[in-house]
From TrEMBL:
Keywords: Membrane, Transmembrane, Transmembrane helix. This is Rod shape-determining protein MreD. The keyword Transmembrane applies. It comes from the Bacteria. The chain crosses the membrane at residues 12-29, 35-60, 72-93, 113-133, 145-163.
Length: 168
């Protein structure tokens, strides 16, 4: 097992612990939560085996669901953004992604923000649509998606800037 693999395992475990024991208890204004555990999916290596990546993403979401008793909505949302990630990377980074030369730590703030925003919005719209599961509450779904996304994007960008590595 190399240093990068250990780093990814550590990130996986730490993000789950921080999410379940700290962030899930914030509930700012009664409904606003940051969901930074998806940083694991955002920062996964580009060359990771796709089946393994989907499995790890599912396990990540399922673990959050088990701690939060949320019935699988996080697992579904994680699986969807894991499937969507290549599209988001291609959209934001273009040829750099095609040639596997994207290193998130070396990208500009604007590109990083666009990528994080696209992934977080996708995750949150799926998460809250499944959680509420009633189109008569579409305004509530949109409100939770918008405000939780803004909160998550802010904290995710802060984490990415504070814990930046040049080779990630």
């Amino acid at each position: 097992m190399n240093k990068d693999t250990l780093s990814h395992i550590g990130r996986f475990v730490i993000l789950i612990l921080v999410q379940t024991f700290i962030l899930n208890h914030i509930n700012f204004l009664g409904w606003l939560n940051p969901y930074i555990y998806i940083i694991f999916i955002l920062l996964a290596p580009l060359n990771i085996n796709k089946s393994l990546f989907l499995l790890l993403s599912f396990i990540l979401g399922l673990t959050i669901d088990m701690f939060g008793d949320s019935g699988g909505v996080h697992a579904a949302a994680c699986l969807i953004i894991a499937f969507f990630r290549p599209v988001a990377l291609r959209t934001v980074f273009g040829l750099s992604y095609e040639f596997q030369t994207v290193k998130l730590g070396n990208t500009g703030f604007g590109e990083k923000l666009a990528y994080v925003t696209l992934m977080v919005l996708t995750h949150h719209i799926v998460l809250f649509s499944l959680e509420i599961f009633n189109f008569s509450h579409i305004l509530l779904i949109l409100k939770k998606t918008l405000f939780s996304s803004l909160f998550t994007i802010m904290i995710t960008m802060l984490v990415l800037v504070l814990f930046r590595r040049n080779d990630s």
